[in-house]
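Dear colleagues,

As part of the handover before I leave the project, I'm documenting each prediction I ran so the next person doesn't have to rerun anything. This entry is a single chain, and its sequence is reproduced below.
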Amino acid sequence: MRTINSSEFRTQCLALIRAIHDTGEPIRIARHGKPIAEIHPIPIGDADKERLRAERDAREIESINRFADELNADVLDVLEYQVDIFAQARSGRGEKEKRKRQR
């Protein structure tokens, strides 16, 4: 069982509770080196475990999709910028050729 100081528990409470839930490993909280509390996960049935696992997987997939959307938007911005530069370069090249012909 992992032991942490009460000050560490105070600052990382939500992350520690999530870890207890995900791993099933209890945590002992100590103050001045003396245990003052333990946090244990609530025993749940297989159906609940599957539901919780599915919910966690859905959250992870949603997070990955959000990241992919942001990445795609950034990539599209870069591609649009490159297309604009290419188009400007081509239009500039075309005008140079027109000027040469007019001379």
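The chain has two domains: 1-43, 44-103. The mean pLDDT is 84.

All the best with the project,
I.
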